[in-house]
Amino acid sequence: MFDPEKTKVVQLTKSYRSTKQITDFTKHILIGGEAIEAFEREGNKPHVYQAKNEQEGVATVINILGKYQKDHDAVAIIGKDLKDSEELYQKLNANNIKATLIRTENQRLVKGPIVVPSYLAKGLEFDVVIVYNANDKNYGESSIDMKLLYVAMTRAMHSLCIDYDGKLPSYLKKLTQTEKVLRKTK
What is the pTM of this model? Predict the structure, then answer.
């Protein structure tokens, strides 16, 4: 489209949103992601919580919310799609957890926990992100699923928590073993 002699390609590889630990964890999901450089802001490693079933996964999300909500204004729970997000939103409401469900890209963000599908999270940032049910059924081995999961995880500035039941996608399982971030729910 442009004259190659008058064009210069510059790759932006420095990440400024997330802590070094989150960036170093998430960059391995992308093909070629090794080139991403983390900003030197220290934080905790991501936490990956394995639930026995969906009900325990929701309880894990509620526990994580309780832990972080006191200290952080912007907490997001990111589901794969609108259906997953709506189902989680209903389950949170049933447990007397007040949250806002984001259904459209032009919906206004408010204070308090936000439930949002992964494809609407791009461009947003939150103090804490909880990726809901990041199992191999929701985020398979396709490049689209990998990119959606990457987008969901990289919305976190300070803390990243990943919840799943069943099995992790192989690329995420490998990361959890390398980074030693897996925690089983009680």
Answer: 0.84
